[in-house]
Amino acid sequence: MNKPNKVINLYLIISLLGIVLFFLIIPFKHDIMKWLVMEHNFKYTFSDYFRQIIYSTNLSQVYLITNDTPFPPFAYIMFHLLWKLNPIKYNSTTYASLVLCRNNSINLIIFFVILIITILALYIVINKILKESPLFKNILLVTSLILSAPFLGGTIERGNPILLVLVLLLLAVYLKDSPNKVCRELALILIAIAAAFKIYPALLALLYVKERRFKEFLRLGIYCIGLLFIPYLFTGGYKGMINHFAILGGFEKYQLWNYRFTSIRCFYYAIMSSFGFHYNNFFLVSGVILENLFIAISIFLFYKTNDKWKSLLYLFGIMAVYVSNSFRYTAIYMVVPLCFLIKNILNGKHQVNKHTYVYIILFALIYTIPIYGVMLEVDFLIFVPIYLILLFSFYEDFKLIKKNKIST
Q1: What is residue 1's predicted lDDT score, i.e. its pLDDT?
Q2: Which of 66, 171, 258, 395 could disulfide-link 273, Cβ–Cβ 3.0 to 4.6 Å?
Q3: 252, pLDDT greater than 80
């Protein structure tokens, strides 16, 4: 067996083993599903979809009726169109309205049709990216992703549109370097649409700056600005935009001491709390310094590395763990560097060595169900491998800089 096959098989074995063991245990220990899902309850199942449907009912007031509307206006226009498919009136933005919306059979069917189409699109895009890999291995890879804790117990369980954003970004990165001009332009539009749902995908503009593709960078900027700001005309205009910015600022300031492990700051606070330290201004300031040191190193090494998958690792690593008030589903952003690492291994652009096995094992530990740590928090078990991947890559690239193998 050649080295590329060994690497991919190792990923599949580790990832699928945890998933299979989890589903074998369920019949004997039903409560283990509560251990898996976010916040250990099903109260908010599909809430990131149905809650936004409720908010978007009155589109012009979407940023004025609640302090819990994080998405840009383009996303709420899309949610409003989905509401139009079954325009039930909701009297409030309370949890009771969410349950009413979620329990409606037509709304559930619409949601599951969208979910199925998105998962199929994910398979098609990954199969296209990994065209050198056998079909059955690509099916197993996508299966390992969909049934992993970040997807099944986070993204899908909450119904978060980040799954759609992931598909858009995977396709955009694949098309970005196409010899076809139309495909390259489509990549710009896909990135802009992704940014119009989650804002942070706009970071991919740095890829064009790094590669000195300034004309495409400018067009991407126009697309992003257009999709991010013009839709405010339909969501309360200037007042709606100001309120939205205030809501986003509130999310950023919200501190999550001893709660989650899903960002640099949250992880730092949670670890300090576990050692008995209490929240104070020192930890507030040091947490902010730590996360900004991370983003500075990531961007510095992004510009220094000559390895395409490493460039993606640093950008998508920022998206996964920099945002302080984030949830488990941001871990799915790491699928992009994983896919392009595997692609580079398959086409011979990445020389397989002992470091490759470190990365693959850690990626497999992200995209599994970490049944081996059932006494620990699932978020901890998902995000520790992400931090280790990033730290190991920092170490690897700084070592190359020191040896003058990366230009300084």
Answers
A1: 59
A2: 258
A3: no
Query: What is the model's pLDDT at position 408?
Result: 45
Instruction: Give whole-number Cα distances, 218 to 139, 188, 189, in Å.
Output: 37, 10, 12
Instruction: Tell whether the model's pLDDT for residue 194 goes beyond 90.
Output: yes
Q: What would the DSSP string read from start to end of 102-155?
A: HH-HHHHHHHHHHHHHHHHHHHHHHHHHTTTS-HHHHHHHHHHHHTSHHIIIII
Is 148:338 a contact under the CB 8 Å cutoff? no
Burial class (CB in 10 A: 0-12, 13-18, 19+), 280: exposed
* CB 147, CB 106: distance < 8 Å: no
d(CA 21, CA 24): 5
Question: What does the alpha-carbon distance between residue 240 and residue 81 come to, in Å, rounded to a whole number?
Answer: 19
Residue 231: helix, strand or coil by DSSP? helix
Of 14, 327, 48, nearest to 141 (Cα)? 14
Q: What is the pLDDT of residues 361-376, one digit of tens each?
A: 999 999 999 999 999 9
Q: What distance in Å separates the CA atoms of residue 32 and residue 210, rounded to the nearest whole number?
A: 46
